[in-house]
Write a structure and sequence with these properties.
The chain has helices at 9-19, 53-61, 86-96, 106-109, 115-122, 165-175, 193-199; strands at residues 7-8, 32-35, 41-42, 44-48, 66-69, 100-103, 126-132, 151-156, 218-221. With 224 residues, it is of the alpha/beta class. The longest helix has 11 residues, at 9-19.
Length: 224
């Protein structure tokens, strides 16, 4: 028998919004509570990169109350919710089983304790700063977050670490516990221009991104 939850959806989403304010999202993004009742009790949360049919089936089987995803299921918009298209089919499942869906995407990327800064810390950078605090977000003058937010992180490598290209990438692989590491020189060409302008002002350039391939999701049991 499940215990009575101490939290509801709004308790958790308010905490996540404080960590990664929704007003710092890119103008094209779609973050926040995309489906569900803010007052719905929550005993268990599933965290995932993408919302897929497999993730939803896992959530149903595990009696999950809330899915927290990085990439938005509704993007950029939908005009109908039917079983005839993948997005509509997944939304119908979520609604049918009372599973709320919350998304934190580019606002989490822009958080000073988000994706970029966590990666910078993992590879051992010091004196970490935000790479760009420009006008990419939907900030307005009355809703600026108290702490600086922005895309990317820049910092200083420890002077004792290797600096030849081969040694450096081997070191990165060990720091991040990677089985493989691919250097993709064309990747910079696909970056947003406002970030490229910032990067071109830096003498030594290293652009590191993480792309995850996964077969399952992590389930976090909330305190009860």
């Amino acid at each position: 028998m499940r215990k009575v939850p101490r939290f509801n959806v709004q308790h958790i989403t308010s905490f996540l919004d404080a960590w990664a304010p929704p007003q710092t999202q890119f103008s094209y993004d779609n973050v926040g509570l995309l489906s569900g009742d803010p007052q719905q009790p929550v005993a268990s949360v599933l965290v995932t990169l993408d919302v897929t049919d497999a993730v939803i089936e896992e959530a149903i089987a595990a009696e999950i109350d809330l899915i927290v995803a990085h990439h938005p299921l509704i993007f950029p918009k939908i005009t109908r919710v039917t079983s005839e298209n993948p997005t509509g089919r997944m939304l119908r499942k979520l609604i049918k089983h009372d599973i709320a869906l919350f998304v934190s995407h580019t606002n989490l990327d822009a958080s000073p304790t988000g994706v970029s800064h966590m990666l910078a810390q993992e590879i051992g950078l010091t004196d970490i700063k935000i790479l760009d605090t420009g006008s990419h977000s939907t900030f307005n003058q009355t809703e600026q977050p108290e702490t600086p937010h922005g895309m990317g992180a820049i910092g200083t490598l420890p002077v004792s670490e290797p600096h030849t290209q081969e040694q450096f990438f081997n070191w990165i692989s060990k720091r991040l516990n990677l089985n493989s590491f691919r250097l993709h020189p064309k990747q910079l060409r696909r970056r947003p221009m406002y970030l490229l302008r910032q990067i071109l002002n830096i003498t030594i350039i290293l652009w590191i991104t993480l792309r995850f391939y996964y077969s399952t999701s992590d389930i976090l049991k909330a305190s009860r």
